[in-house]
Amino acid sequence: MQNKKKSLRVGVVRFPCSNCDFDTLRFFIKFGHRPEFIWHNENFFSSYDLLVIPGGFAFGDRVYKKATGKYEIDPGVQALRSPIMKAIYDFAKKGRPILGICNGFQILVKAGLLPGKLTQNNSQKFFCDFTICKITGDSFFGDKKMLGKKFKVPVAHGYGKYVVNDKEYKRLQKNKQIFLEYQNFNPNGSVRNVAGVTNKEKTIFGMMPHPERTPDGKFFMRAIETYVKN
Predict the structure, then answer these.
(1) Which residues are responsible for catalysis (predicted)?
(2) Which pTM was predicted?
């Protein structure tokens, strides 16, 4: 008799204006896991196997000096002011796995939990389409069988250009922190086609493409499951 696959308890952080939260919830439910929402005003949450910060325009990607005044577009900044960030930092300090997708990636970078920075696309326009991505680091959620595989994955962002200088890029390469790269077409102008990076400890992952919107998604989910179980 085969052992029943262990379902993961997944916390999905929601900010005002998040719009990929339900996509993420359904993604994990589809594969038999137990996701639940965490509202951004929480400053503490119980134990989870995985924490996910989904895509979507958290706070509209806007930063207001006054509630009704002028604003600047700076994805992730407003989210850093939410009480939930304390719990996210605590989760990270414990070495627990965190995945940030698109806007979640931007938030993790702004929070200093991932290296580099994300700026406006070279086109200065929002881009939404499928793109081909290649798994370039065997640290991708701990599944070495994923190395070298290519997938057609949706992207949807206006500030997805990943930027590091040459010295920082070489450091990321040496530490095998770049786990995902665009192939054939770079939708935003990211340095060396970088689409996803991890922290040095390989516990926090950020990626611009949306695995939760991939028509199948089983390969990404298997990779996530493998990492979390290790």
Answers:
(1) 102 (nucleophile), 210, 212
(2) 0.93
